[in-house]
Amino acid sequence: MSETLNLLKQLIERPSITPNDAGCQTILIDRLKSVGFQCEHLPFGEVHNFWAWHGHQSPFIIFAGHTDVVPPGDETQWHSPPFTPTEKNGYIYGRGAADMKSGLAAMVVAAENFVKQNPDHNGTIGFIVTSDEEGPAENGTQKVVDYLQQKNIKLDYCIVGEASSNEKLGDAIKIGRRGSMHGELTIIGKQGHIAYPHLADNPIHRSFQAFEALAKTKWDEGNEHFTPTSFQFYNVEAGAGAANVIPATLKAKFNFRFAPIHTTQQLQQKVERILNYYQLNYDIQWNVSSQPFFSGNGRLATFVRQAIQEICHLNTEPNTYGGTSDGRFIATTGCEVIELGPVNKTAHHVNENICIADLEKLTDIYFRTLQLLI
């Protein structure tokens, strides 16, 4: 059994449902320490984090990832227990197999092998690992990055081991991510009897035109690196608990996924202009869960693409598709950030799995990238 597969199995066996680490980080730390890495536990609240490094020079390349996973859902729908790593037809099944325990296993084994072969290597290799990526992401990577900045540690390059590939390992890498902003909107009307609408002010009726305008607004055209900004309602609630009452309020929640084309303030102002145009009485609360980032095709991305070409014989597609990742926190330091990991088709799904043959290739890509960088 390969070292990467063996480590992945050990990690899948730990039911590390966010924010519980379930002992995964102890396994990783013990392995890294055995080849000379220095490691620091950095717990914040109930979240487990660690920071590890080997070397004392620049450039500083970081591997980043998370040990937490989403809940397995209805376990009767799995063909094998979600926390029992199961090999079948060339694949290994288990919660976290794709997102992202395979990435973690491959990164750690690649770093081990590199340090064993190059004990006095140039540069510094580091790890940022958290158990708070699938949850609120408040006490995880963000706090570790703050800690490193307080210590004046300058990061140069970062590979996040998220499942970035689409159909084949290495066919895509992320060189940026859109931002995410939520709005909680309350439309204020006047409660009344449904038989006497002239004595009430129905917030549901009042909202229709404004909501249609928001849904149909073209916020931007996107650009060569980012798709157009997306606006989606995801929850609308109204009602007074009785069929003969016009409610006093309507509550709606919506989300923006946006490129660096806009600031959050610009989007907020545009929403409020639309609401004001339709003369709505409203209250709105905003929550910016992540800012967009774009690292572009820098030195790290160039070497990653070379490594993928050499090992997988693919011309990878750099893109910014998908949701958010912890790369957004690391990018705030000015570090070049890319995401490179396994195929993402089964992430968060029942019967999550990863191709076993891809594990060795992914390990080799990480190893080759280290060779090219330092």
Describe what you observe in this structure.
Strands 1-2-6-3-7-18 form a six-stranded mixed β-sheet. It has a four-stranded antiparallel β-sheet with strand order 12-14-10-15. A three-stranded antiparallel β-sheet has the order 4-5-19. The chain is of the alpha+beta class and 374 residues long. The protein folds into two domains: 257 residues, Aminopeptidase; 112 residues, 2-Layer Sandwich (Alpha-Beta Plaits), CATH 3.30.70. The protein is 31% helix and 25% strand. It is built from nine helices and 19 strands.
Sketch the major β-sheet.
6 strands, mixed
CATH class of the largest domain: Alpha Beta
| Overall mean confidence score, pLDDT | 96
Oligomer: single chain
List the main descriptive attributes of the protein structure presented here.
single chain; 374 residues; alpha+beta; Aminopeptidase; Alpha-Beta Plaits; 2 domains; six-stranded mixed β-sheet; four-stranded antiparallel β-sheet; 9 helices; 19 strands; 31% helix; elongated; diaminopimelate biosynthesis; hydrolase; Succinyl-diaminopimelate desuccinylase; succinyl-diaminopimelate desuccinylase activity
